[in-house]
Amino acid sequence: MSSDRRTTRLALHAVAEQIIAGHQWRALGTIRLTVRPYGFSSRDLPTPPHRLAVDGTDLVVGDHRLALAGSLGALAAAAGVACRGPEGVYPLALTLGPDDELRVDAEAAGEMSRAWVLGDSVLRAFGSLHHRGGLEPVLWPEHLDVAVSLDEVNYGVSPGDEAIPEPYAYVGPHRRRAGEFWNAPFGASLPMSETSAAALRSFFEEGRTRARTDPFADG
């Protein structure tokens, strides 16, 4: 499963960055993507295709579905968009190039989408408690995580990365804190495997409290 997770994550990351976010950036001037029940999507776009979305193992282009297979460049061409990320916004991950083959495992993609959906739901509730008017979670193409930021602390859910191969939740203060809660170089992490909504809420709430009370790691 770990190899399937990695190849799937790299493929979804490339599609998010170089097909969806890149096209959206050139159309709307924003890279903010949105979590959907089985993946993620662009915002509404002003010209066809009016939406680009990942749904399971497919790329949805308007009313059409394209399998996430073949080369990244060929998929972009079939979707009618450039295979090019949002240049100048952040250092692009470029996990795959236009000639690289996409490999998406349905089980791994499902695991990631469930993590995003749960994270999106809990983050919305968390934001409504602690920020007037609430907070809209964003799926960021840079790291493929769904997240909000509050009082200089990031709260989110990642599909995994090279250091932590499975989906995980995180609390990442802009300035590191010291204490047993902070179990990762970036802050604190919690595996999403079998994590309930209640457990995830508790993790974010504890992270908020600890970020307010624990000393800075750098003194």
Instruction: List SSEs in N-to-C order.
Output: HEEEEEHHEEEEEH
Globally, the shape reads: globular
Enumerate how many helices there are, as a single number: 4
How many strands, what sense, and barrel or not for the largest sheet?
A: 5 strands, antiparallel
Q: How many beta-strand runs?
A: 10
Q: Unreliable stretches, pLDDT < 50, 5 or more residues?
A: none
- Helix fraction bin: 25-40%
Assembly status: single chain
**Structural class by SSE content:** alpha+beta
- Rg (CA only): 17 Å
A few lines on this structure:
The protein is an alpha+beta fold. It has four helices and ten strands; from the N terminus they run H-E-E-E-E-E-H-H-E-E-E-E-E-H. Helix content is 35%, strand content 20%.
Topology (elements, then pairings):
Elements: H1 2-28, E1 34-36, E2 39-41, E3 52-55, E4 58-61, E5 64-67, H2 72-79, H3 106-130, E6 138-140, E7 145-150, E8 153-158, E9 168-173, E10 188-191, H4 197-213
Antiparallel strand pairs: 1-2, 2-3, 3-4, 4-5, 6-7, 7-8, 8-9, 9-10
Helix pairs in contact: 3-4
Question: Can you tell me about this structure?
Answer:
This protein is an alpha+beta fold. It has two domains: 2-106, no CATH class; 107-213. It is 35% helix and 20% strand. The chain has helices spanning 2-28, 72-79, 106-130, 197-213; strands spanning 34-36, 39-41, 52-55, 58-61, 64-67, 138-140, 145-150, 153-158, 168-173, 188-191. The strands form two sheets. The protein has a five-stranded antiparallel β-sheet with strand order 1-2-3-4-5. Strands 6-7-8-9-10 form a five-stranded antiparallel β-sheet. Helix 3 crosses helix 4. The radius of gyration is 17 Å and the shape is globular.
